[in-house]
Write a structure and sequence with these properties.
The chain is α/β, with parallel strands linked by helices. The protein folds into two domains: 3-177, Glutaconate Coenzyme A-transferase (3-Layer(aba) Sandwich); 200-439, Acetyl-CoA hydrolase/transferase C-terminal domain (Glutaconate Coenzyme A-transferase), CATH 3.40.1080. Helix content is 25%, strand content 20%. It has 14 helices and 25 strands. It has helices spanning 3-10, 14-17, 35-42, 66-69, 85-92, 140-146, 200-212, 253-258, 284-290, 301-304, 307-311, 347-356, 412-422, 425-439, and strands at residues 26-29, 51-55, 76-80, 96-98, 117-122, 130-132, 149-154, 162-163, 166-168, 174-177, 218-221, 243-246, 274-276, 296-298, 316-321, 324-326, 331-332, 335-336, 339-340, 361-365, 369-370, 375-376, 378-379, 397-400, 403-406. The chain has a nine-stranded mixed β-sheet, with helices on both faces. Helix 4 links the parallel strand 2 and strand 3. The longest helix is centred in the C-terminal third of the chain and has 15 residues, at 425-439. It is globular, with a radius of gyration of 22 Å. Mean pLDDT is 91; it is low at 57-61.
Length: 441
């Protein structure tokens, strides 16, 4: 069948497409979520029971509006794989379960949890019948091929990228036309948090990190309150021929490619290309530059986050954020105690990959305090229940606004002293006292 005829046959209303969902189904929304499909699903709340929904937590997903989710707790049972701000309260109140991601930054669902209906945004098909997944891929292509039913919301505003970021019309069961969410973009960072921009603390941390980057290094920068500012604060502009192999592509990376700072000249694979599984989060100018630009390639997260692929790059530098760490170097990026505030993403994968890379380094960026300076993020012992996102065996360098702690190859006592030196001065005496109690005779 001609793909154009097939596309016309499969193009239906959201209400018609959503009839594919049955009571008890496991329904997965990809990010960015499909608002027309979400609203159509809500409209069937009185007809359905026990529908399990897993979503990535993006701000466009109607099901994360608690004003209606609370009304239908018997109909929709929510799961999330990343605790973004909009769903944090739902997880804390036990109204949403949390799906623990695998090593590749997304849940291992293809075998453990068969997917009944997968809903995803794509671009309209090109002249060959292929649709783009847009600014982020993750495991969408694999999930299209494993889900029982696939419904795609065709959005003309979705960008096209090179790499392996496409799907053919023949692989989709139903298409619907995109319905804009009506929300005004802007004012939030890549995690959906309200932000006023970097302050002196972020500039100080970025400066220390910049001093650790060498010409020709291949970089990964994770999303988070401190790490993701590194690309925007000018500390990389004097470097030459940097490479890019990352989970996300934070704001500022597109500009560094435009300006010839990131060239990928020395990359062992995908030389000359900036490679990631997501390129969203940039300015409009950066996104326009990335659109249909062969300098950028997007691949599935099970490739991008494979530590063996990461380690194949010489001088791989992983830069990520944390919310707490103890004096031995255990890194927490997901919770304080049992209270979830984020997700692991690809932090562990990149820590392993950087550790195995020839000349590789792993850097954790963290502000020294939280809650207005009343709490130290560097603690003697992590609070019980805290998820250790990266074990101390992979801890390398930790950067705060007070300097660089080098942990690799150090004893527990040496690590404690390194971390106390970059902790906030108000907490150093107490940390030293606790370190002596824990690690000295």
């Amino acid at each position: 069948m001609d793909w154009k005829e097939e596309y016309r046959r499969k193009l239906v209303s959201a209400e018609e497409a959503i009839k594919a969902v049955k009571s008890g189904d496991y329904v997965v929304f990809a990010q960015p979520e499909a608002p027309a499909l979400g609203l159509a699903l809500v409209s069937r709340a009185d007809e359905l029971t026990g529908v399990r929904i897993m979503g990535g937590g993006g701000s466009d997903l109607p099901m994360y509006d608690t004003s209606w989710y609370d009304v239908y707790p018997d109909t929709f049972r929510l799961e999330t794989s990343y605790v973004l701000p909009l769903v944090r309260a739902l997880v804390a109140e036990r109204k949403s379960d949390f799906t623990v991601s695998g090593l590749f930054g997304v849940p291992d669902m293809t075998e453990a949890k068969p997917m009944d209906v997968f809903m995803v945004q794509v671009s309209p098909p090109d002249e060959h019948g292929f649709c783009s997944f847009g600014a982020s891929l993750w495991m969408k292509k694999e999930w299209v091929r494993t889900a029982r039913i696939v419904i795609a919301e065709a959005n003309e505003r979705i960008i096209r990228t090179y790499g392996d970021n496409f799907v053919h019309v023949s692989e989709i069961d139903h298409f619907v036309e995109h319905t804009p969410s009506g929300k005004i973009p802007g004012g939030t960072d890549i995690l959906g948090r309200r932000t006023t921009g970097p302050g002196e603390l972020e500039k100080s941390i970025a400066g220390y990190i910049g001093s650790l980057i060498k010409d020709g290094d291949c970089l990964e920068i994770g999303v988070g309150g401190t790490a993701e500012w590194v690309a925007q604060l000018g500390v990389l502009e004097s470097k030459h021929d940097l490479g890019w192999h990352s989970e996300n592509t934070v704001r500022g990376i597109g500009t560094l490619v435009m300006n010839g700072v990131i060239t990928g000249k020395h990359k062992n694979i995908h030389a000359g290309r900036a490679v990631a599984t997501a390129v969203g989060g940039g300015t409009k100018e950066e996104m326009d530059f990335i659109n249909d630009n062969p300098l950028f390639e997007v691949y599935s997260s099970n490739y991008i986050l494979d530590p063996r692929v990461i380690a194949s790059h010489d001088n791989m530098v992983a830069i990520n954020s944390a919310i707490a760490l103890d004096l031995t170097g255990q890194i927490a990026a997901e919770s304080i105690g049992t209270v979830m505030t984020s997700g692991s993403g690809g932090q562990l994968s990149f820590a392993i990959g950087a550790y195995l890379s020839r000349g590789g380094r792993s850097i954790v960026a963290i502000s020294s305090t939280a809650k207005g300076g009343t709490l130290s993020r560097i603690v003697p012992i992590l609070e019980p229940g805290t998820v250790v996102s990266t074990p101390r065996t992979l801890a390398d360098m930790v950067v705060t606004e007070y300097g660089i702690a080098r942990l690799k190859g150090k004893t527990q006592r040496e690590r404690a002293l390194e971390l106390i030196a970059v902790a906030h001065p108000d907490f150093r005496a107490e940390l030293k006292k606790e370190a002596e109690r824990l690690y000295w005779p």
